[in-house]
Structure to design on (322 residues):
């Protein structure tokens, strides 16, 4: 467990991505309800600190002997799908830099364009690898493939906030939406007819919520029509998947708390944010109640995972000096 927790791995960037997504969820809720609180700022600071520590811990290994392990992740068909975790985390960082430090707004916008370029390259590289890798099989298909698509939708949402609506947003939106249809169908086929997800990766199934929830928000803003099919079809799919996971709750509880538990928070943050946008548009209290319930669940989960991390860190320190 200690080796898994402390050896640098691209998968650990799920932690800052989850925290920053939860921070964006809470920030939007506070702005929408005119609720004055430092809770969102605290969560964002927690997420940025985690991103900074992981970045300082991860990237130096690229210039050490251990870089072969990181290169192996890049070449692995499963772990390759986790690299967009970094670009999504930095998208959120650019957003909060503009929102919380207005004097550095131009730096935040510049950071956004840089991250957008990197994420666009990741789209081309990952899709090229998946298309032409002769060793790739259906068994390699994992929920983590949705991370890339989620990043495309996040690029649109953050871009709308920072630079306004532009033509490139339709490119990212349409590409992500089209691939979401295909990936969702293929992954469901794989899970139902080929083999269920391995038990240790079961929390990653929650990522099913993220692309449709983010697609719903993007459509709501791009089409400026709250009753458009592109808003409600993805949202309905996300609601269906969440209901299935709630019914299957005992299966997820058996997994306990570990680093992979951060996989719950980003999709829930996206789903809660979709409900917030629908409430702000339609003024139906149902959406607000769902958004608040999801937020409560995220805060509880983040507290449990943080407590687990502290306990593991304390045990490691004690064993080192024992």
């Amino acid at each position: 467990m200690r080796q898994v927790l402390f050896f640098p791995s691209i998968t650990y960037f799920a932690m800052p991505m989850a925290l920053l997504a939860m921070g964006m969820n809470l920030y939007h809720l506070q702005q929408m309800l005119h609720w004055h609180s430092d809770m969102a700022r605290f969560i964002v600071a927690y997420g940025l600190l985690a991103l900074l520590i992981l970045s300082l811990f991860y990237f130096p290994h690229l210039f050490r002997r251990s870089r072969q392990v990181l290169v192996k992740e890049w070449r692995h068909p499963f772990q390759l799908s986790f690299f967009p975790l970094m670009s999504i985390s930095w998208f959120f960082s650019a957003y909060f830099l503009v929102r919380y430090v207005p004097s550095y707004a131009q730096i935040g916008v510049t950071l956004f364009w840089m991250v957008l370029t990197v994420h666009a390259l990741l789209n081309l590289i990952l899709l090229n690898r998946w298309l032409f890798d002769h060793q790739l099989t259906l068994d390699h298909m994992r929920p983590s493939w949705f991370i890339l698509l989620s990043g495309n939708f996040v690029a649109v949402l953050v871009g709308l906030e920072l630079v306004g609506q532009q033509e490139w947003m339709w490119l990212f939106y349409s590409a992500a939406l089209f691939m979401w249809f295909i990936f969702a169908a293929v992954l469901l086929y794989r899970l139902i007819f080929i083999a269920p997800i391995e038990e240790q990766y079961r929390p990653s199934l929650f990522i099913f919520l993220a692309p449709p929830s983010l697609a719903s928000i993007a459509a709501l803003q791009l089409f400026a029509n709250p009753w458009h099919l592109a808003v409600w079809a993805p949202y309905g799919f996300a609601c269906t998947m969440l209901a299935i996971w709630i019914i299957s709750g005992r299966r997820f509880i058996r997994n306990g708390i570990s680093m992979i538990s951060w996989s719950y928070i980003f999709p829930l943050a996206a789903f809660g944010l979709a409900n917030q946008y629908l409430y702000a548009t339609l003024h139906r209290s149902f959406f607000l109640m769902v958004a608040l319930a999801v937020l409560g669940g995220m805060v509880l989960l983040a507290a449990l995972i943080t407590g687990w991390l502290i306990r593991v860190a304390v045990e490691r320190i004690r064993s080192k000096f024992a």
The chain has one domain: 2-321. DSSP finds 13 helices and no strands in the chain. The radius of gyration is 19 Å.
